[in-house]
Amino acid sequence: MNNMVKMVVTLSLISALAAGALAFADKMTRKKIAMQAKLKAARAVKKIFPDCAAPVERIVKSKKGEAITVYDCPGQKACFIFSSNSASGISRPYSGLIRVMVGVDSRGTIEGVEVITQSETPGLGANIEEKSWIGQFKGLSLTKGKLAVKKVDRTGSIDAISGATISSKAVTGIVKAALEFYAASGGKSAAPSEKARNQRFNRARQRKHGVMGPRSRANRLSAPLRAIQRKPRGKRVRRNKKQLEGLKLQLREKIRMRSSRAMTPARTMQSTGGAK
Amino acid sequence: MSAGKEFTKGFWRENPSLVLLLGMCPTLAVTTSAFNGLGMGMATTVVLIGSNIIISLIAGIIPKKVRIPSYIVVIATLVTMVDMFMAAYAPDLHSALGLFIPLIVVNCIILGRAEAFASKNSVGYAALDGIGMGLGFALTLFILGSIREVLGNGTLTVFKYKEVLLQFVVYHKEAIRPVLVFILAPGAFIALGFLLAFKNYIDGFKKKNA
Question: What ipTM, to 2 d.p.?
Answer without folding.
Answer: 0.74
